[in-house]
Write a structure and sequence with these properties.
By secondary structure, chain A is mostly beta strands. Chain A is built from no helices and twelve strands. Chain B is 0% helix and 49% strand. Classes of the chains: A mainly beta, B mainly beta.
Chain lengths: 115, 115
């Protein structure tokens, strides 16, 4: 069965600290897709990044970076020099195999960045 | 660009009442989804559709019905509202095509309370 685990329920940091959000997934598929979404306090879901299973390059976008390691089935998300505006719930998701495009979400990690 | 539009944003229902949550998208996406998000949990798939006239059950379909008569619209119906259906409901859509890593685009959600 496919599964996504975000073991960190809540993280609290002080502004300018670096923080890493963990995501571990389970799948028997050889080709799969991983996503990160942000849910700010206003409630909408914002797409952050997608990653194909055959592309293990890490990615950096400004203060955000993602570390994809197939060997440990992890797709971790790091925010460098966190800001108050980064406070949100962050979801990791796995695209299910087949042609339905269904996403399997982790439970989410609530990040609180204090000034 | 409107993207995915959900109405209403908030609703309070009495037990046993029925209602339809509306979802429309203007991106000509074939794939559409309905999720529910319970407090402290990730999103769980209720129903999905891979095209007009085609719908299928997700992980938690009991108590809900959907229809997909057009590409744009994917309404979710609650026939006999129960307190367990108190949740935030998200509609999403994604495109088809050869690249299956296309992200799902989400509406802003409908917060539903059953009292």
């Amino acid at each position: 069965a496919q599964k996504v685990t975000q073991a960190q329920t809540e993280i609290s940091v002080v502004e300018k600290e670096d923080v890493t959000l963990d995501c571990v997934y389970e799948t028997r598929d050889t080709t799969y897709y991983l996503f990160w979404y942000k849910q700010p306090p206003s409630g909408e879901l914002v797409f952050l990044i997608r990653r194909n299973s055959f592309d293990e390059q890490n990615e950096i976008s400004g203060r955000y970076s993602w570390n994809f390691q197939k060997s440990t089935s992890s797709f971790n998300f790091t925010i460098t020099a966190s800001q108050v505006v980064d406070s949100a719930v962050y979801f990791c998701a796995l695209r299910e195999s087949g042609n339905t495009g269904k996403l399997i979400f982790g439970q989410g990690t609530t990040l609180q960045v204090k000034p | 660009n409107a993207g995915v539009t959900q109405t209403p944003k908030f609703r309070i229902l009495k037990i046993g009442q029925s209602m339809t949550l509306q979802c429309t998208q203007d991106m000509n996406h074939n794939y559409m989804y309905w999720y529910r998000q319970d407090p402290g949990m990730g999103l769980k798939l209720i129903y999905y559709s891979v095209g007009a006239g085609i719908t299928d059950k997700g992980e938690v379909p009991n108590g809900y019905n959907v229809s997909r008569s057009t590409t744009e619209d994917f309404p979710l119906r609650l026939e006999l509202a129960a307190p367990s259906q108190t949740s935030v409901y998200f509609c999403a859509s994604s495109s088809t095509g050869g690249a299956r890593n296309q992200p799902q685009h989400f509406g802003d959600g409908t917060r539903l309370s059953i009292l």
